[in-house]
Design a protein that fits this description.
- This protein is of the alpha/beta class.
- Among the domains are: about 1-275, P-loop containing nucleotide triphosphate hydrolases (Rossmann fold), CATH 3.40.50; about 465-535, Winged helix-like DNA-binding domain superfamily/Winged helix DNA-binding domain (Arc Repressor Mutant, subunit A, Orthogonal Bundle).
- Helix content is about 40%, strand content about 15%.
- It has 18 helices and 17 strands.
- The protein has helices at about 10-15, 30-40, 85-95, 105-120, 150-160, 180-185, 195-205, 215-220, 265-275, 285-295, 295-340, 395-405, 415-420, 430-440, 465-475, 475-485, 495-500, 510-520; strands at about 1-5, 5-10, 20, 45-50, 65-70, 95-100, 130-135, 165-170, 190, 225-230, 235-240, 345-350, 360, 445, 450-455, 525, 530-535.
- Strands 5-6-4-7-8-3-9-10-11 form a nine-stranded mixed β-sheet, with helices on both faces. A two-stranded antiparallel ribbon has the order 1-2. The protein has a two-stranded antiparallel ribbon with strand order 12-13.
- A hairpin with a 3-residue loop joins strand 10 and strand 11 (about 235-240).
- The longest helix has about 45 residues, at about 295-340.
Length: about 550
């Protein structure tokens, strides 16, 4: 059967497959979802998780759905009931069902969806049969960043549902926010109009287009119902077409449309559905206290809490933890190298540990008169890189700061920027000492504006380091941001433009972190509405 002028829909191939339906608000995404559900009705059991209470109008004389939940459903739906048992009952009865949870809070929806889908995945093999689970706003229930109550169950459904005959339709407005593990399982794709640059890049990546290609840019002007379609059950290569209009419509915004009368076939199944849909009886406080004290219950609760907290903190914790750990190691190494220490002296062999075990110590060693030799003066000057005659004694880290200032000649930079370029951590306990020692060096001088400059060009310093020298040492994403700002030739760029040209997610913490790092190196300058290249490099 055809679902568009140039797209043949293979229902047999569609069995057990995962389908992605993406489109911004007003793109015709919901209408396309209806078209798919209407086309597959009667071939598969449909379990529609209606998070906005808009799919009940699918029920007609030709298509008989049970409607559970909502103000006018065939059976009630409680937030506290056993959602897993309900899922198993629906699989057993085999009736296509619309579960209305539009009035619930987001967390209540996530909790119910997680328990419902987990119940499906626990079904024994005698309940496995061709089924479609439809979930709108999927990015809210299986997000890329963090773990929510429904994340694990939906990921399990996407990765292991096929062998059970469970197919899925994941609809979303924000492709870039949906979990990649779920996204990667979707064989069939309907990709409609996009509005966010991050979503455009994600769509282009799925289709094999460049993020700034004409095909990707044109998707911002797609008409309602217009999609790129590709997949085993659709077409082997992406085809741009307009999906046929569905026979039913969603209620118009602000209006109320009651479901049609309950079909006779649904009424016969209501006894079991109502039984599964009722809220569990109230639990007496004593029983609740006993269950709460059960070690297995406590362990399960702790595991769920740990998983959720771990997931939500992973993104920030990984960035902050790795950065802090790296700086702590670097600081410790700097302090170790700067410490006053005596020359190690070989004092013998530890025979107890074996004849080859050499022991070294840092005990001060005093030479005897017979060991003393007269040191002759050097015939020529000894040149040590980075050390000038008459320069006061300073630590190696302080000298690195001075060298960074000198290498920027004839430009002036602050000592903090010089330390950053030299790889010296500002968190080091000796950082203040490094700054004081560097400022006292006769090789550099304060220009009066907080920036230091070399007194004169030193050997080997012919020009300040160009941007290419920094790009070689920067992470690749930071280097792309710097390249984007360099191409603007001093013009201001906002975050969206930088993210787009550098091919970095607009919602990624790496974007703002990278720009802060580049600004700290004096390579770019923050403005009121964005960033621009530092005047030193224009």
């Amino acid at each position: 059967m055809k679902i568009a002028a140039n797209i043949e829909f293979n229902l047999e191939t569609f069995r057990g497959q995962r389908t992605l339906l993406q489109g911004a608000s007003g793109s015709g995404k919901s209408t396309a979802a209806r078209a798919l559900l209407e086309a597959t009705y009667g071939k598969f059991q449909q379990l529609i998780i209606d998070v906005e209470d808009e799919f009940h109008t699918l029920r007609t004389a030709e298509r008989e759905y049970a409607i559970i939940g909502g103000d006018h459903g065939d059976a009630p739906l409680s937030k506290t009931q056993d959602a897993g048992d309900l899922a198993l009952t629906l699989l057993k009865v085999g009736v296509s069902t619309i579960l209305q949870i539009g009035d619930w809070t987001l967390e209540e929806k996530r909790s119910f969806i997680g328990r419902f889908v987990a119940g499906m995945m626990r079904a024994k093999s005698d309940l496995w049969h061709p089924t479609i689970v439809m979930l709108d706003e999927s990015h809210l229930f299986c997000p890329q960043q963090g773990i929510v109550a429904s994340s694990e169950a939906i990921t399990h459904l996407a990765t292991a549902g096929r062998k059970r005959g469970f197919g899925t339709i994941f609809a979303t407005q924000r492709l870039s926010l949906i979990n990649n593990d779920v996204l990667g399982q979707c064989e069939n794709k309907f990709l409609g109009r996009v509005e966010q640059s991050a979503d455009r890049r994600a769509v282009a990546d799925l289709l094999g287009f460049g993020p700034r290609s004409s095909e990707a840019v044109d998707m911002q002007a797609f008409k309602p119902g217009e999609f790129y379609v590709v997949g085993p059950a659709l077409t082997p290569t992406p085809v741009r077409d307009r999906i046929f209009k569905a026979a039913t419509e969603a209620p118009r915004p602000g209006s109320t449309v009651l479901p049609s009368a309950t079909p006779a076939a649904i009424q016969r199944a209501l006894a079991e559905l109502v039984k599964a849909s009722k809220a569990p009886p109230a639990v007496d406080p004593k029983g609740a206290a006993q269950r709460a004290a059960d070690p297995s219950e406590i362990a399960a609760a702790e595991k769920r809490g740990y998983a959720r907290g771990y997931g939500e903190g992973m993104e920030k914790g990984r960035d902050d933890g790795f950065a802090a750990g790296a700086e702590a190691i670097r600081t410790a190494l700097e302090e170790f190298l700067d410490r006053p220490r005596q020359k190690p002296v070989h004092i013998g062999v530890d025979l107890a540990r074996g004849p080859d075990q050499t022991v070294w110590t840092e005990i001060p060693y005093t030479f005897t008169d017979s060991e003393m030799v007269e040191l002759k003066p050097l015939t020529g000057p000894m040149i040590v890189r980075g050390i000038r005659s008459g320069e006061p004694a300073m630590s190696p880290s302080s000298r690195k700061v001075v060298d960074a200032v000198v290498s920027a000649y004839p430009l002036g930079i602050s000592l903090q920027v010089a330390a950053k370029r030299a790889g010296i951590s500002s968190r080091s306990s000796a950082f203040r000492k490094y700054m004081t020692e560097a400022a006292a060096s006769p090789r550099i001088q304060d220009r009066g504006d907080g920036r230091y400059v070399a007194v004169e060009a030193e050997a080997g310093v012919t020009a300040p380091p160009g941007l290419a020298a920094f790009k070689e040492r920067l992470p690749s994403s930071y280097a792309r941001m710097l390249t984007a700002l360099e191409a603007a030739r001093g013009a201001e760029m906002d975050l969206d433009a930088i993210a787009d040209r550098a091919e970095v997610s607009r919602t990624s913490s790496g974007l703002t972190t990278g720009l802060r790092e580049l600004a700290a190196l004096d390579l770019i300058v923050k403005t009121d509405d964005g960033y621009r290249l530092s005047p030193d490099f224009l």
